[in-house]
Every structure is written in C-alpha cells, then in structure tokens.
Amino acid sequence: MKRKIHLSVCFGLICAVLCSMSHFSAACDDLRQNVLRLHIIANSDSEADQQLKLKIRDEILAKNDGLFENAQNLQDAENTVCSNLAFFEEIANDVIAENGFNYTATASFGVSEFSTRYYDDFTLPAGDYKSLIITLGEAKGKNWWCVVYPTICIPAAKGELSDTVNDESAQIAKGGKRFVMRFKTVEIYEKIKNFINR
C-alpha cells in the first residue's frame, strides 16, 4: 500500500513538473520564433582571430545603424537581411583585408543552434534561431552573437523583446537567473531533440 502511495505521489510530481515545463517551453518557443540573431563565427580560437571577430562585429553593428528601423515584423527583418547579404559580406571582408588576414568571410541567412545565452539584462533559451550568419575563414573558433531584431544590439536603435514577443515570454527572458534550472532543462531537451532529428 505504501509503495502505491509513493508511486502515486511521484507520478503526480512528474505530471506537475511536465505541465509546468510545457507552459515554460511554449513561452521559450515564442522567443525563438520572434527573434532574429546575428551570429559571427571566428576562424579559430587564436587571440588574433578572436580580436578580428570583434572588429568585424563592431563594424557590422556600426554600419547597421538604420538598416532595420523600418522592419515592422520578423519577416521584414528577414527580408532586410536577405537583400543585404552582399553588404554584410563586404563589410567583413574589408575588415579582414585591412587587418592583413588571408581568409574571407561569408554571409548567409539560416538557422543557428544556440545553447542558453545570457545577454546583459535578458536571457534567450537554447534552441534553433533564424540568424544572419557571418562565418570567418574555417569558422572553427568561438562565436559571438546578439539580437538584431528587435534591434537590441544595434547601439543607435535600442529595441525591446516586448516589441516582438508576448508579455509572458518577455518576462521569462528578463527573469534569467530565476529560471536557471528551467533553462537548463530546456537546453537538455533541445539537445536530445536535435540528436534524434539528425
């Protein structure tokens, strides 16, 4: 009898956790589907390649000023990225050449897989995000990322996550440290899902 009670209690707890995570996961999906990220992947982890990555980041952000200001929604932002891929690639390759490196950059629009990332005053959960992807050389180094829609990382055009996601999702993103365990659970789930889907 005691064993049945213990099993019932455990089952009830598991169901409660799963229901809670299901709700949390839906809010995380809202974040993933309404954010456009900039993803710059360095040639290698050497100090020189990592420094170059940051110079390219600075130049791309500086020259992005105003580029996304007319984007009313994510689709507009995606269209802006896709119609300016050559522009982004040219910026990166100019910085590479100016600094005397012998590899090139490639700009593309696609999906990048991210682990949970903390950025100043908000957190984005693990998962797949639409991204402007700048790959430098062999793209084997540490990456740098930010959010270009809404325009969170563009200095002259500060946007807010609440501009594009529902209130609950925005609160979860801003609650970062309060949801560390839940973000970790989502990250594990995303890794398992990506492994199964390969």
What is the β-strand count? Answer: 6
Number of helices: 6
Please trace the helix and strand order, writing H or E for each element: HEHHHEEEEEHH
Helix content: 40-55%
* Oligomerization category of the chains in this entry: single chain
Strand content: 15-25%
Distance from first to last alpha carbon = 44 Å
Report strand order across the widest sheet: 2-5-1-6
Q: What is the count of distinct domains?
A: 1
Shape category:
globular
Low-pLDDT runs of 5+ residues are 6-21
Main sheet overview: 4 strands, mixed
Overall SS class? alpha+beta
Q: Quote the average pLDDT.
A: 77
Rg over alpha carbons = 20 Å
Name some characteristics of this structure.
single chain, 4-stranded mixed sheet, 198 residues, 50% helix, 6 helices
What does this structure look like?
The longest helix has 32 residues, at 2-33. Strand 3 and strand 4 form a beta hairpin. This protein has one domain. With 198 residues, it is an alpha+beta fold. The relative contact order is 0.20. A four-stranded mixed β-sheet has the order 2-5-1-6, with helices on both faces. A two-stranded antiparallel ribbon has the order 3-4. The protein contains six helices and six strands; from the N terminus they run αβαααβββββαα.
At a glance:
This protein is of the alpha+beta class and 198 residues long.
Give the SSE layout.
Layout: H1 2-33, E1 36-41, H2 47-63, H3 74-83, H4 85-98, E2 105-114, E3 117-119, E4 122-124, E5 127-136, E6 143-149, H5 167-174, H6 180-197
Parallel strand pairs: 1-5
Antiparallel strand pairs: 1-6, 2-5, 3-4
Helix pairs in contact: 1-5, 2-4
